[in-house]
Amino acid sequence: MTELSPTDAAKDAAARAAVALVQDGMRLGLGTGSTAVFMVHRLAARIRAEGLRLRCAATSRATCELAGRLGIAIEELDEIGWLDLTLDGADEIDPDLNLIKGGGGAHLREKITAAASDRMVVVADPAKVVEVLGAFHLPVEVTPFGVETTRIHIQRLLDAMGMTQRPMLLRQRDGAIFRTDEGNLILDLSLDRIADPAALGRGLNAIPGVVEHGLFLGMCHLALIGSPDGSVIELTRPEVSA
Ligand SMILES: O=C[C@H](O)[C@H](O)[C@H](O)COP(=O)(O)O
Q1: Of the four, 47, 81, 85, 241, which is 20 to 30 A from 57 by CA?
Q2: What top-level class would CATH report for the domain 6-129+218-228?
């Protein structure tokens, strides 16, 4: 087996700790992204070793395909109905466990899945932990119809919130316009610092054409931050017990 980079070793440590929370019979949501890949591998290994009986829903086609390759049966979220636990990655995590997600464009399905779960546990490497959200671009999923007018609405919202002249890029991948699993587009907002994530989230939710933004506020119950040496730090919201 090839040796992991320090960042990947940290992601794998967090993934191992998260998968240790899984119990036989659970209904699980499986997140998306490079850290979630480690989590899905660790989960598959536990299922093989212990014969865990789980019901799993995936937050993206990519995770669904990976899980399938590793022998994890995936069901539609609506077939399961409600989940005990969702394990997912994040792009930024603040001290209140508010998150930015959507670096891979999966935040719509991820948010629906996390909102349908009793608990959301995030797995990450230490670089994801920040004091204030916003250094990572904020992904906003928008409908292709009217994307330019939606952009104007978002710009007006940002201006009204004192965030003027912030770049807002239509996401591309491999030289083409990126499409989400739902066929929508992503606008990536470079905001530097989001002083009031709740107000920004409310403002974005009120814009026709915005399908979902990458702010996950008050949704994460526990963050497991791995280190390259294999140790893991648990972060909890002040009002939530682990
Ligand atoms: O859309 C992608 C998801 O929100 C990911 O969970 C997030 O971008 C973190 O991904 P990674 O673990 O690759 O940093």
Answers
A1: 241
A2: alpha beta
**Predicted TM-score (pTM) above 0.80:** yes
110 is catalytic: yes
Atom of ligand 1 nearest to the CA of 34: 13
| CA dist., res. 16 & res. 164, Å (int) | 42
Rounded distance from Cα 19 to ligand 1 centre (Å)? 17
∠ CA(230), CA(90), CA(111), 5° rounding? 135
User: Which atom of ligand 1 is closest in space to residue 101's alpha carbon?
Assistant: 4
Please state the domain extents for the chain: 6-129+218-228, 138-207
Tell me the per-residue pLDDT of 77-122, one tens digit each, with 9 for 90 and over: 999 999 999 999 999 999 999 999 999 999 999 999 999 999 999 9
**CB of 12 shorter than 6 A to ligand 1:** no
What confidence score (pLDDT) does residue 1 get? 60
ipTM higher than 0.95? yes
Q: How far apart are CA 15 and CA 88, in angstroms?
A: 9
Is 51 annotated as ligand-binding?
no
One CATH from 2.60.40.420, 3.30.70.260, 3.30.479.20, 3.30.70.20 for 138-207: 3.30.70.260
CB of 107 closer than 6 angstroms to any ligand 1 atom: yes
